[in-house]
Design goal:
Blueprint: H1 8-11, E1 19-21, E2 30-31, H2 37-40, E3 62-63, E4 99-104, H3 111-118, E5 125-136, E6 139-146, H4 163-170, E7 174-177, H5 178-184, E8 191-194, E9 199-206, E10 215-218, H6 219-225, E11 228-236, H7 242-253, E12 258-261, H8 294-303, H9 310-321, H10 342-348, H11 363-376, H12 383-393, H13 397-413
Helix pairs in contact: 5-13, 8-9, 8-11, 9-13, 11-12, 12-13
């Protein structure tokens, strides 16, 4: 997918060059939890015995994200439904209008131009936002300054219905594009000092997927940063008509307008590659052996479900038990490091270490069982199917938001 040119048109209108200085001693992402003797005892190659007498090292620290604690969730965990439907409604209630093309105009786009854009054939909507290129530790970063009330419906399912990005923008904080955060090593929760200006907090990372865009701020924060308002236009319409949309947008906005096709509907942009296939119940072996650390256990378990990131399992493992630090039972009767209800375990439990039994308290069984449960509900397909699969794991959209935020934080802290 082509990148938007580096907003070179916009740069010339900025009051000056803005440089964000990486704060080496800023607010750190990771708050290390205790790793007692019991957790440390599970070295690789532990002799056979009771499955949960020794487990993997609790090597993963507990990740913190703004406004969230690091403890286990109080809400009920995986339901006792034998085979949940992966097509359950997302329940977000938002009418999404993903952009088919993104245009960068040589000057601010006024109301008259917007009306002409909206009257074009195949155009379903148009939204103007601010933009500009800033410098982050010597690297160019393309930012959009967006209207917080309107912008969520231009983003994918799984982002639009998450409260964290929009609350962060309202607080005047930065939300990074997830891919850019991984590429640039940006850490959610850290503060970055604007050279000669205010400190800017990177509150969250979100997979919005606009090509060439590295981060998002509110319109008010955009003004503080010197971004130019109204020079970037998002245009919604059928992706199959992208060529016609591109030509129409250029005619309305005039010479010098840069137009980039997004390439796919927003809800599909974060989906796994088409080659990824959900293994059937018989194909899902669950075998991971007995790795010596939780991070390796999560990686091996996720590999059993093509398209599922280990960071999602890590996020669930943190929320449910703090990576095996508190295995319950919960007030709802959930057990083990991944907090399964016994009826759900009966349907999805696996013998991950090959000792001849599937033990709900054994992390070598419980973590691949969680991968099995998520995979059966479509998690390997990414995007909104991943969000729905996490919702099936715990019927709460706030839980989904928390898990996805923590998964993004782990991805940023442990880039592959």
């Amino acid at each position: 997918m082509p990148r938007i040119p580096r907003l070179a048109i916009v740069v010339g209108t900025l009051a000056g060059v803005i440089v964000l200085t990486m704060a080496a001693a800023g607010v750190h992402l990771l708050a290390h939890g205790g790793t007692g003797a019991t957790a440390a005892a599970g070295a690789a190659g532990t002799a056979p015995g009771p499955a949960h007498s020794a487990g993997p090292r609790a090597d993963l620290p507990l990740v913190t994200v703004p406004g969230q604690d690091t403890g286990a969730a109080a809400a009920p965990t995986p339901s006792a439904i034998a085979r949940p439907s992966p097509d359950a409604s997302a329940g977000a209630g938002l009418r999404l209008t993903p952009p088919a093309v993104v245009a960068i105009a040589p000057r601010r786009v006024g109301d008259a131009h917007l009306r002409r854009l909206r009257s074009l054939r195949h155009v379903r909507g148009a939204l103007t936002v601010g933009g500009g290129a800033v410098r982050v530790a010597g690297v160019t970063l393309n930012l959009l300054a967006v209207p917080v009330a309107e912008f969520p419906r231009w983003t994918p399912v799984g982002v639009a219905d998450r409260p964290e990005p929009w609350e962060a923008l309202r607080r005047g904080e930065l939300v990074a594009e997830a891919a850019a955060a991984r590429r640039l090593g940006l850490v959610p929760g850290a503060h970055y000092q604007i050279d000669g200006g205010p400190r800017l907090r990177l509150a969250a990372a979100a997979a919005i997927g606009l090509p060439g865009i590295d981060g998002y701020v509110s319109e008010e924060t955009g003004r503080r940063l010197g971004l130019t308002p109204g020079v970037v236009v998002l245009v919604s319409g059928p992706v199959t008509r992208a060529g016609e949309l591109t030509g129409g947008v250029r005619r309305v906005l005039g010479a010098g307008t840069q137009v980039v096709v997004t390439g796919a509907p927003a809800a599909a942009r974060t989906a796994a590659p088409r080659a990824a296939r959900t293994p059937s119940r018989d194909e899902f072996t669950g075998r991971v052996g007995r790795p010596g650390s939780y991070i390796e256990l999560y990686r091996r378990a996720a590999a059993l479900c093509p398209g599922l990131s280990w960071t999602v399992l890590a996020a669930i493992g943190q929320v449910e038990s703090g990576h095996g630090r508190d295995n319950g039972p919960s007030s709802a009767g959930a057990l083990g490091p991944m907090q399964f209800m016994p009826a759900t375990w009966k349907a999805y439990g696996v013998d991950g270490d090959g000792d001849g039994r599937a033990d709900i308290m054994n992390p070598y069984d419980a973590v691949p069982a969680a991968a099995n449960y998520l995979c059966a509900t479509g998690a390997g397909q990414g995007g909104d199917r991943l969000a729905k699969a996490i919702w099936h794991y715990n019927h709460s959209w706030s839980y989904v938001s928390k898990v996805l935020s923590l998964a993004n934080a782990y991805a940023a802290a442990y880039p592959d």
